[in-house]
Amino acid sequence: MQLKVGELARSTGLTVRTLHHYDEIGLLKPSGRSDSGYRLYGPDDIARLHGIQALRQMGLALADIAALFEGRGPAPHAIIDQQLRALDDQIARAAELRERLALMRGQLAEGGAPALDEWLGVLRQMGTYGKYFRPDEIKFILSAFEDFKSDWSELTRDVRAAIEASLPADSSEVQSLARRWMSLMLGWMSGNFDLMHRWGEMFQREPHEAVGRHAPPPEVIRFISPAIELRMEATRRNFTQDELARIRYVPECDWRALDARVLALVERDVAPASPQAEVVVQQWLALALRTAGGDARLRDRMLDAALTDPVLRLGSPMSGASREFLRAGLAAKKA
User: Fold this and answer.
1) β-sheet bridge partners, residue 40
2) For residue 39, what is the enclosing H or E element?
3) Are 334 and 281 a contacting pair, CB within 8 Å?
4) How far is C-alpha 250 from the geometric centre of its chain's CA atoms?
5) By the 8 A CB rule, do 69 and 48 touch?
6) Tell me: the pLDDT tens digits for 160-178?
7) Can you list the alpha helix ranges (DSSP code H) found in the chain?
């Protein structure tokens, strides 16, 4: 069976012009000619054309297909591997785009029908986040923020009060704010220091309005940053990077509750060696152990550093009276 060029074009969905082009470049030459000079394609030609079409659907250029047929191209399994990688890349990019669109939809859905400026703001925010985080990381950060939103609001109010009072970075009040800030970041980012580093990098490099509603006000960041850096320097003096990676978040409310219980004993003049004191000492050690990620040795080093390092002594989650009572109770327990 032989087909004329028009018949072959109709049966394959190609144009006559395409088949003529294949002939001109030597990719598919008809094996015969009619008495009138028309191109005639036999079974082998048709099989070759189906191979060309399949390879074109895989994304190969005509030159690469010609080289393959002539034995100059890569082996078939190499071509398949190449196309699988290309498809994997396309799938990954499509999945990333879908995730970004879903994130944007979630951000815009909170206020009903968004105004144009809100729509553009979310576009800008997602574009900024996309420079530093994968879509799954953005989704995690935005969803986790909801659990810490009220804590950040309270902390921001407290930092504003410190700004109004013109408190220095090395004061106990501002160091307490810096410790709370670092602790909230630890909880929000689930202890992932890489995420925290990239988040800080984004804040330093990007305009504030591009970061969106999850950004503390610029004046708050400018005020607290020197205090955080001072505390980070002290932290790095006392602990290795591996030890820092083991530190876990303990909510401020847990420390405040313990501080209130200890102060109640102090006000009642309860002896540090009493059974009541031993209860709060055990609770204190348990909270410190949670902070140390369950590592008792790291907990003891943290408690020691909080006593001996001049910066870490500042801003403790426990009041001075509570710390003295607990240390006296711990000493009595060891005696």
Assistant:
1) 4, 32
2) strand 39-41
3) no
4) 21
5) yes
6) 999 999 999 999 999 999 9
7) 5-12, 16-24, 43-57, 62-69, 76-109, 116-132, 135-164, 172-188, 193-205, 208-211, 218-238, 241-246, 252-267, 275-291, 296-308, 320-334
- Percent of the chain predicted with pLDDT > 90: 41
What does pTM read for this prediction?
0.65
Q: Which residues contact 106 (CB under 8 A, 6 or more apart)?
A: 142
Single-letter residue type at 31: S
Q: Output the DSSP codes for 226-240.
A: HHHHHHHHHHHHH--
Quickly list DSSP for 83-151: HHHHHHHHHHHHHHHHHHHHHHHHHHHTTSSPPHHHHHHHHHHHHHHHHHS-HHHHHHHHHHHHHHHHH
Q: 3-state class of 222 per DSSP?
A: helix
Q: Note the pLDDT tens digit of each residue in 265-291.
A: 999 999 999 999 999 999 999 999 999
φ/ψ region of 167 (left if φ > 0, alpha if ψ in -120 to 50, else beta) reads beta
Question: Which residues make Cβ contacts (< 8 Å) with residue 111, sequence separation at least 6?
Answer: 118
